[in-house]
């Protein structure tokens, strides 16, 4: 049962991390730039932050689901963060400054910062955990089960980001020295952030 809970955490974390977002787009960009070691350090930092966020979601699931305003605020924060990071990415791609270059070259610290500023992981895991429990697929009645499940979420996102890194590296030969391609992650984040902000307002 312990292993089953872990595997379910891995699978749903992997699948849930596929849609475009701040973290996987950053990894794709690093992979296309052949910054493999930086991308792997970035992925490790994301996996580390995923653990406490998923744990918070599991432990405080009842409180969070009973307070819709909490989830709404997470969405607003995420929208603002995606817009800010998207604008910063576009600006740094067009006019690289010393700070932007250092930030983009920093794998682990960059991963930590972007992960902490990505709190939508909490409502995501609240929703998925509630669904999995209702289907009887997971049992989180003991701390061992909880930590096995949460550890699985970290492993799942790590596997996906590492896969993205090496897939992006394969594509890099087609987009080498193409400035437009370097703008794509920033533009995508900006559009997604504006979309999320629009949904929050309207």
Structure described in brief:
With 202 residues, this protein is mostly helical. It has helices at residues 2-16, 22-32, 36-59, 61-65, 68-94, 98-105, 107-116, 121-134, 143-175, 179-201. It starts with a helix and ends with a helix.
Task: Give the ordered list of helices and strands.
Answer: HHHHHHHHHH
Radius of gyration: 17 Å
Mean pLDDT across every amino acid position: 78
The portion of residues assigned to helices is: over 70%
Termini separation: 44 Å
Domains (count): 1
Main sheet?
Answer: none
Dominant shape: globular
Task: Detail the poorly predicted runs.
Answer: none
H/I helix tally = 10
Query: Could you say which structural class the secondary elements and strand pairing correspond to?
Result: mainly alpha
How many β-strands, per DSSP?
A: 0
Query: Beta-strand percentage?
Result: under 5%
What does this structure look like?
This protein has helices spanning 2-16, 22-32, 36-59, 61-65, 68-94, 98-105, 107-116, 121-134, 143-175, 179-201. The N and C termini lie far apart (44 Å). It has one domain (2-201). It is mainly α and 202 residues long.
Give the SSE layout.
Elements: H1 2-16, H2 22-32, H3 36-59, H4 61-65, H5 68-94, H6 98-105, H7 107-116, H8 121-134, H9 143-175, H10 179-201
Q: What distinguishing features does this structure have?
A:
202 residues; mainly alpha
